[in-house]
Amino acid sequence: MKKLAAGIDIGGTNTVFGLVDSSGNILYKDAIPTTKFLLPEDLVKAVASHIQKDSLLFIDKFELLGVGIGAPNGNFFNGTVEFAPNLKWKGIVPLAKLFSDQLNCKAVLTNDAKAAAMGEMIFGGAQGMKDFIFITLGTGLGSGIVVNGQLVYGHDSFAGEIGHVIMFSDGRACGCGRNGCLETYCSATGLIKTYQQLIKNDAQTIDSKYIYDQAQIGDKYALEAFNFSGDILGLALANSVAYTSPEAIFLFGGLALAGDYIFKPTIESFEKNLLRIYKNKIKILPSQLPSNNGAVLGAASLVFF
Fold first, then answer.
1. Is the same domain home to 111 and 140?
2. Quick check: is 123 in a domain?
3. Which of 50, 141, 145, 300 has the greatest CB tally within 10 Å of its CB?
4. Tens of pLDDT along 173-207?
């Protein structure tokens, strides 16, 4: 009997989930709005209902091995979501236990970016690598650090927050409550802020897709915004290398889809700022996870690893 894993990605707006086999094939995928559920128990029941209903399609041939969950502020050690700022749930939520009890199988939970890093190692471009860094460039900047084939969690499960290294002590306000964090400059939100400052227009209609489109037609401010973001990101990644000496760094998420507009300045800054012993040894690569399925694959990989 072939075993499946349920991969669940809890986002501030939507919760995406699917059934995945050990080869990374998604047999079923769906989504429901996270914001619809004021209580985590109600979200768990709704997701479980979908999974149980659709699992019936495979009941004779497949077995649900477990549930992998990627969530903001996810604590791998405790299976809890803790004080997540972009979720309506307050305090500490025992989300893994809720899913385990509801679906009667093991449940593994971690930070959403760490889950995606696992997906890169199991199903993506990091297959065969034991040391790499995974960066998500979306609304914020998330990260997962893998050393000797293991995710780095630290003593409390919250290690590896590269997005919250401070680049400028008097810099932009960050959602974490501090100022100058990397993600306020090197994320879709950061790119928008930079572009708005350059054109002296904070219109709400400007999004990262608009800036990308402007860059394609040679808008100097759009190109400058990408170069500024890449310059800061390259410096931060060069500093990160000094801690773990990874084989590669993978960029994932909407901003990474801008291709050379973000990769070129990032790589140039990265090589310029690397300690000499690391130069020309470390690749900065686009993630090989499909952008529309990466979160589900990453979460499911927690079960298979």
1. no
2. no
3. 300
4. 998 899 999 999 999 999 999 999 999 998 888 99
